[in-house]
Write a structure and sequence with these properties.
The complex is a heterodimer. Chain A is mainly alpha-helical. Chain A is built from 19 helices and two strands. In chain B, helix 2 links the parallel strand 1 and strand 2. Classes of the chains: A mainly alpha, B alpha/beta.
């Protein structure tokens, strides 16, 4: 196919093209081979394992390993056994994690970026470094730090003690924070229609029970570490914006908040998309904090599907197929969420009615250069997004 | 067009890669057909010993024992301390080049044995009958003894001496029955100290089940017995202690386990294994404590035993040498040396007398092995126990019978 394509098309072009195509392939070959060997092939191997009864002994590509259809997926998605219950629990934990981490870290990152980007702030470099520091520290080191900070007699509980608050035993407390809140209001057990019915082996009352106290500590940690990373992306986008638009808004009498809401934020849309997508993908893949920190405990309330995939495969069950199947379910979840988010955040065409407001007569077009300036960085960023999200998606499968 | 070409290229790469890998795969598979009863493989190849070490003391003790064997046997051997034992073992089994000799926990036996990763060499051991029966049962799968028990740990009652004396109690008051345990726990409980504290897990409270005559599974983990009346009795007793406030889970006194609660003076008694001695020595060197046997329940004495064995890989090219190494490592002299270096209990009965004379204060731990039972070891049982543990968190307010019925269902599912 390749040779056919290169044989027919160059006729219309200059002869040099043929050599270009060849050297193009030559130069991309190392990357293609590496990607294929370490990314594409393993993915297909894992896909096969997910549909097989491989038990971890020898290669999965021998005659002793059989195709067993969807049974690995079936046991985690239905059947009413412990496998389904554990998967439901992991999904519940991770869903709460994502629901809380993604919006909060985005808002915090944006806030920090806007603050640090202000001209009047002295020592901006110091602040930038300080906020970015957690991101470049290994997550294992931060997890260990967190275990100390959030221990029963740790710094956090000491500080809470100054205010007369008896802090919880963070990493040993499995109760959900929403359920804890309700219990504080006197609601000790949920209504029958919630406790009686379940989805994936976990009752609806537990689904809406909120993250466990232990998971909440991990949520704080995620916000602490990743906000700095995303702050950097926002700073880059902010610095790419032209000051003239801001000045124009000032001349029009816009307040600081209005300038942020109606001028800055719309221009940040592509960056926002990147940050939310990266946050979403990272959020559904939490593993190292759990592996080094809590090992899924207390009472399975900090397991994530990614950790469950690991413990199912390497644990005493040695269920390799099921572990791989969980991995692919996570992959599907990430893809679906990214697509949904892309649809929500896509650039909409301005409606005709609003467009009419901007349809100025040609005589008044001397201010139009402003428009182009305004579009420049936006377009650049949009192109950046397209490639970045492609990378993300392939990264999401690992 | 360009784009499609790229995808075709990637696809071609994938196919080639898969073919290459499956070709390697067919190479591995040749060795997996050996039967367990046949001759041991033998070669000049060096041995690899993979251990899940608790620290430098254990690593250096095992290394020196292995190298001294190596010198006399003439087969070179290398000790590797795994950072994640089960992961590194699995990688070895999948690649067809596993470590020859390795630590194997009894809960992991069924998974690896059913996949055909392990050599069942138990019947070839000359001193097979010297190992404690409760240990050999724990390493029996499909009626075959798979490996030689390496060491053991049991749970017993550990008492904080100063709290005990402050409450006006003497040696004569060490509890020997459940009733006595309850009454001393009441006496010991004050505003700042709880009488009895332990992790709210089956791994500790299971001892009460054995004392009541039950356990989650039979000794060889071939039958689920979680919903027995004895287990209900045991959990009901623990629930009573919890509700009376004389027992608290260690997390509820703000500690990570019973040893920490005892050392920090937040608990007067705890149920812990012999590893607690090392923990107390390093974290609370000034705290004095006494180890006494767990009190008898309705069915007499009982406790839980934890154990590891020396696994040998079925794919090992030098099984004969590996077996010789294991015989040496489970000998009396080596086990006593290991015990001295990192505090484990010897797995052979012939070493008991000498060990007891060396460790008079820890005798109850070793005595426990005669009436101890193991934890469930069927494939996937670890997930069931984790789930059981999470339900035990709320034991004080829930019905033991309901909890145990769910465990029974889950355990039965692991046996199919």
């Amino acid at each position: 196919m390749t040779t056919l394509a290169s044989r027919t098309s160059p006729r219309h072009h200059r002869g040099i093209n043929r050599g270009e195509a060849r050297s193009g392939w030559l130069f991309t070959a190392p990357t293609l081979i590496l990607l294929g060997l370490f990314l594409v092939v393993p993915i297909f191997m894992a896909l096969w394992v997910a549909f097989s009864d491989w038990n971890g002994n020898g290669s999965p590509f021998t005659s002793a390993v059989h195709f067993i259809g969807l049974s690995n997926f079936g046991s985690v998605l239905s059947g009413g056994g412990l496998d389904e219950q554990n998967f439901g629990q992991a999904l519940r934990n991770n869903a709460w994690y994502v629901i809380l981490v993604v919006p909060i870290q985005t808002i915090v990152a944006l806030f920090l970026a806007v603050m640090v980007n202000r001209q009047i702030l002295k020592g901006r470099g110091i602040f930038r470094t300080a906020f970015y520091f957690p991101s470049v520290t290994s997550s294992v080191a931060i997890t260990v730090l967190w275990l100390f900070l959030f221990s029963q007699s740790g710094a956090i509980n000491n500080v809470l003690g100054w205010f007369g608050i008896n802090g919880p035993n963070w990493f040993n407390e499995p109760s959900g924070i929403i359920q804890d809140g309700l219990a504080g209001l006197g609601v000790k057990s949920g209504p029958g229609f919630l406790t009686g019915n379940s989805f994936l082996g976990v009752s609806w009352w537990d689904w809406i029970g909120g993250p466990s106290v232990a998971m909440t500590a991990l949520i704080f940690m995620a916000i602490f570490t990743t906000s700095g990373t995303f702050m950097l992306l926002f700073i880059a986008a902010l610095q790419n914006m032209s000051g003239e638009v801001q000045e124009a808004a000032m001349v029009d009498g816009a307040t600081g908040w209005q300038r942020f809401r109606f001028v800055t934020l719309p221009q940040l849309r592509p960056t926002l998309f990147t940050v939310l997508t990266l946050g979403l993908i990272g959020g559904w893949q939490i593993f190292d904090q759990i592996y080094t920190g809590t090992q899924g405990g207390p009472a399975n309330t900090t397991t994530s599907p990614a950790y469950l995939a690991y413990s199912t495969a390497f644990g005493n069950g040695q269920e390799w197929g099921q572990g791989a199947a969980i991995g692919f379910i996570v992959f599907a979840i990430i893809v679906v969420f990214t697509i949904v988010q892309r649809v929500i955040l896509r650039e909409r065409k301005v409606s005709k009615r609003r467009m009419r407001l901007y349809n100025l007569p040609p005589s008044a077009r001397d201010g139009s250069s402003n428009d182009e300036d305004d579009q420049g960085p936006g377009m650049q960023a949009a192109v950046g997004i397209a490639t970045e999200s492609q990378v993300n998606r392939s990264g999401g499968t690992v | 067009m360009q784009r499609r070409n790229r995808w075709l290229g990637a696809g071609a790469l994938a196919v080639i890669g898969a073919l290459a890998l499956s070709a390697c795969g067919s190479g591995f598979s040749s060795s997996s057909g050996g039967s367990t009863g046949g001759e041991l493989s033998s070669s000049k190849k060096a041995l690899t010993v993979l251990i899940g070490s608790s620290g430098p003391a254990e690593t250096s003790a095992v290394t020196s024992a292995v190298s001294s064997w190596s010198k006399t046997a003439g087969t070179s051997a290398k000790v590797i301390a795994a950072s994640d034992l089960s992961q590194q073992l699995s990688q070895g089994f999948a690649s067809g080049k596993p470590a020859d000799v390795f630590y194997l926990g009894n809960t992991d036996l069924a998974g690896y044995a059913s996949a055909g990763d392990l050599l069942a060499y138990g019947n070839k051991l000359p001193n097979k009958s010297d190992f404690y029966p409760s240990l050999t049962k724990a390493f029996t799968y499909n009626n075959q003894l798979y490996c030689a028990p390496k060491d053991l740990s049991t749970l017993q009652l550990v008492i904080n001496d100063s709290i005990w004396q402050k409450a006006g109690l003497t040696k004569a008051d060490y509890p020997t029955t459940w009733n006595e345990l309850e009454s001393v726990a009441k006496k010991l409980t004050t505003k700042s100290v709880v009488g009895l504290s332990m992790n709210g897990q089956y791994e500790r409270m299971g001892a009460f089940m054995v004392e009541a005559g039950g356990n989650l599974m039979n000794p060889t983990s071939t039958k689920a017995t979680a919903d027995s009346a004895a287990n209900v009795t045991a959990l009901t007793y623990v629930k009573k202690l919890l509700n009376e406030g004389v027992m608290k889970y260690s997390k509820d006194v703000g500690e990570s386990d019973g040893g920490q609660a005892l050392g920090a003076g937040k608990a007067a008694m705890t149920v812990e294994g012999n590893w607690v001695t090392g923990e107390l020595k390093s974290d609370f060197p000034t705290v004095k404590y006494t180890v006494v046997p767990l009190p008898s329940g309705p069915a007499g004495k009982g406790t839980l035993v934890y154990t590891n064995c020396w696994g040998i890989a079925k794919d090992s090219p030098n099984q004969a040498a590996a077996l010789k190494l294991v015989e040496k490592l489970t000998s009396e002299s080596d086990q006593l040396a290991f015990s001295k270096a990192f505090g484990v209990l010897p797995s052979i009965q012939s070493a008991a007398t000498k060990w007891k004379s060396q460790n008079p204060a820890l005798v109850p731990f070793l005595d426990g092995v005669s009436y101890a039972q193991g934890v469930p070891a069927s494939k996937n049982s670890a997930a069931v126990v984790t789930d059981f543990d999470s339900k035990l968190e709320t034991l004080a307010t829930s019905d033991p019978k309901t909890i145990l019925a769910a465990v029974q269902t889950n355990l039965q599912a692991t046996l199919k």
